[in-house]
């Protein structure tokens, strides 16, 4: 069984739409090179949105889920949220020097990106809990917004919010223009990602699924308040992603996009459902314009999902081959 359920259906649609047309001003995917990845996406959307098609899907069931780190924006040399907590760690260690010996704190202070990346998204989430508990969501969001406004990527010298992948932003817009609801399903902290999801991707706050810190309600004087506790309540990574999708969205997606083995279960669960399905994997192959990594990477490791993609019908997007540009304003 393939991701776009039948190879015959895909071939038929490709024949009906004919060869890819030359780039036009109204091309919805101008940053995508013509090729099998772009063709599979266009054919799938055509099939599930054309009334009378045997693969037609009603708008309410057109659910598409996207990982964030490494799928929608740059995740190297270390997860963006890991960079975000560095300033908070430094301030906490200054107040309590003994914290410097904790593994995560030490990695941050030493700017040891390899050790920090080795913590994984679960380890990063624990750091977030330790460093950003005891405050209200509004206080945390203000802190994150301020940091995002001033922080710069160590290689590209640009704000992290300018290092979104232009082809993926176009894909999100393309899907929404065809009646899809688009969701982020990330191992990162949900409140961190909510800060930029709408301006960066057009995805509103309520359509972000992510790892969550424990919350409690309390009254501070006469004011009802939500407080973030210093512990994690849910890790939305690996097998947690289908659980997060079911808990938050309540419907199985028909399209899933990831870039690492942390997205394997989300891809499996999405493409195992009935009817037409599409699984996409972003493969980082362009060291010149971004980064090249997969099986041996501490960040965004892609091994099992890459091996199983052909048999499961998942489309592997080769960044170097398939993307005319990577970041906004970029070119080949």
How would you characterize the overall build of this protein?
The chain is an alpha/beta fold and 332 residues long. The protein is built from 14 helices and seven strands. Strands 4-3-2-1-5-6-7 form a seven-stranded mixed beta sheet, with helices on both faces. Helix 1 crosses helix 2 and helix 3 (80-95) packs across helix 6 (120-132). The protein is globular, with a radius of gyration of 20 Å.
Mean pLDDT: 89
The neighbouring-strand order within the major sheet is: 4-3-2-1-5-6-7
Strand proportion: 15-25%
Order of SSEs:
HHEHHHHHHEHHEEHEHEHEH
Low-confidence stretches: 5-23
Oligomer: single chain
Q: Structural class of the helices, strands and pairings? A: alpha/beta
Largest sheet: 7 strands, mixed
Q: Radius of gyration from the CA trace?
A: 20 Å
Helix proportion: 40-55%
Q: How many helical stretches?
A: 14
Termini separation: 36 Å
- Overall 3D form: globular
Q: Please provide the count of β strands.
A: 7
Record keyword descriptors for this entry.
332 residues; alpha/beta; 7-stranded mixed beta sheet; 14 helices; 7 strands; 40% helix; 16% strand; globular
Question: What's the structural blueprint in terms of helices and strands?
Answer:
Elements: H1 7-17, H2 36-49, E1 63-66, H3 80-95, H4 103-109, H5 113-118, H6 120-132, H7 137-150, H8 166-177, E2 181-189, H9 190-194, H10 197-201, E3 208-220, E4 223-234, H11 240-248, E5 255-258, H12 264-271, E6 278-283, H13 304-312, E7 315-318, H14 319-322
Helix pairs in contact: 1-2, 3-6
